[in-house]
Please model this.
Amino acid sequence: MTDPHAGAPAAGRRPSPFRRAARLRGYLFALPALVIFGVFFYYALGFNVYLSLSSWNLLSPERHYVGFANYRALLMSPRFHRTLWNTALYTAGSTLGSMTIGLALALALRRVTRLARLVQGALFAPYVISWVSVALLWLWLLDPQYGLVDAAFVRLGLPAVNWLGAEGTALWSLVLLTIWKTVGYDMVTCLGGLQAIPAEVYESAALDGAGPGVQVFRITLPLLGPTVFFLLVTSVIFSFEAFDIVNIMTQGGPIHSATYLFVYFIYAVGFQYFQIGQAAAASVLLFLILLILTALEFQFLQRRVHYAA
Amino acid sequence: MNVPSRVREVVVLAALGAVAAAVAFPLYWIAVTAFKPGPETFQFPPSLWPRRWDLGPLRAVWQMAPMLLYYRNSILVAAGILVLQLVTVILAAYAFAVLEFPGRDVLFYLCLVPIMMPEQVLFIPDFIILRTLHLLNTLGGLVLPFATSAFGIFLIRQAFRGIPGEFIDAARAEGAGDLAVIWHVLMPLGRPMIATFAVFSFVFHWNDYFWPLIMTNGVPVRTLPLGVATFYTQESGVVWNQVMAANLLLILPILVVFALVQPYIVRGFQLTLR
Model:
């Protein structure tokens, strides 16, 4: 990624007036993007830290410095603890579930030539529709009175489950529908990675007497390392964004903050209780968590990916 | 293991077909519910095929809410974002991929960092910034913060760097300026990646619920996802066939786009990963 010469073809041959002009044009062309990021990302980042050190209700002109009081309040808040735990469970459950199933589907789909596009399309369709659609659809499917899922359970002789209405099942219901929505993305991405593995590798392994099972574990999975890494990073970040399903389906409930996820917590604290300072402090923590997670994933996986490749 | 490969393919295909049908079935359920007369939605067990296809729910949705306005707002926002992103992203990608200037790599990394930070991280300060700019409750406030894209700059710079420098030199030798090089050389050759990015961007912002929820309130600037969600939160109780009819109106354009460009999307993923 950091090859300073590859992007400038034959720059050395050019006369110097051109290069001086190129300098100005470089800044000029990058300027619009830099201005947008400058205001809505970098300035916002600093402003957010400033807000996190102050006490403010968004409406009054009064805003005063309170040091780390907002962070202390967060660390003492049982609701915030519950939010962290929920977010960890939701992220682990949806990411691992979706990646495992997506990989299995990709491995199966690789063997199929006919109807592959149709199967792919059906599996990928839930990924392109909005979270709003998903939330409304699953509220209807999981409806305790008229929902299709409970109807199926009754037909199969299983006990009815109060999916979103019980503390023990609400979060896992969200995990399941998230897996349903994202599994197609993991499948398509894995399929792309599988197709990048040269056929000769398998041919020579088969000549050495490796069966299909051995091939999957010795060749396919190790060579799929970079793809799995990419998926893990993006999936973890996506799952930290989760908000729409909580806001529409459970509002953090049914009881005891059972489905409070990180972004919903920030939203509730900031825009329902108007504690902007505390909401900003939580945003700063979210930023740091995402930064650390991404760095850790790079560290841990890059080493393994290198060994494998 | 000795099973002939034809038979194995049929078995795998049957299993995959079953999984795909199960995954797609909930989408079918939206459509079926949207065309059921009211009483039939409360029937237990539910009917898998409506006894008669009823246009009532769709008509009710269309009369109860200004759906055309929602469509207009959503199209304006998603298309406005897309056009601005294409301009800013392609210009920046050109600068970072082709031109040479001091600090180029530092500036490129500054444009790359936001890639891993979702919009949900900085919405509190961005809300206050938009308020200061008097852009709350306007369509402009839904567009401006997304006028560029870190993901897009990364992807399209990558595509531009894959284009041999001789093409660019040849165009220059014939007197082409920067914009001519971008328009006649880089954009045609980078088209698969640009198209993939455009589809992703449009679908993402068409579907977005979070940003409009935070930055707007009130019907005149309401986008489709917010408008559809209000059908669930009506005080008179949930009318499921209407909720699903509204949902169908939200999903349909996306599924049509998706059906048209599915090969682009799948290929886009593979390009992205190289």
Observations:
- The mean pLDDT of chain B is 87.
- The first helix of chain B runs from residue 5 to 34.
